[in-house]
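Study both lines:
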Amino acid sequence: MVEVKIERKKEEKAVQEPEIPPEKKEEFSPEKLQAQLEEKTREASEYFDKWLRLRAEFENFKKRMQKEKDDLVKFGNENLLKALLPVLDNLTRAIDHGRNAQDKSPLLEGVEMICKEFLNILDRFGVKTVPAVGEAFDPEKHEALSQEESDQEPNQVIAAVQNGYFYHDRLLRPARVIVSKGRPEPGKETPE
């Protein structure tokens, strides 16, 4: 009796396992499954790489937009300040003309006070004067109008015709200057 029970269990097992057709067995072969796994792993790796690149691109875009926004806020008044510089030049000319006059009037003192206040306001907003007289000529911040012989070294700024200004770290307007040629050569006469 014991033998019969064992045979029945074997028969039950055989009945419970469905039989897979041979063409289906090929679909589930270990080689095919391994190839499919490698293909899907490669695809996942490509998608992950694309995602990383897009994420980095988006981060760069955000940084660029933030920098542009900061620059817009920082340099937003640049056109206004450029338009005000001729007014400052005229105030400076009026002061120079008043100082050359024989009588010192209270009007001159008033214009000097206005010019000083105007310069203080510009300074508060980040406008600084470009150093000129006594400096070495720098084409990035000076505009040479002429060269003259002088006792100073060659390529030294000897006079500023018009002041230049920086707005934060940008050049708002270059200083218009006269540059030294150096000492006159002995024996040569200067044309008059």
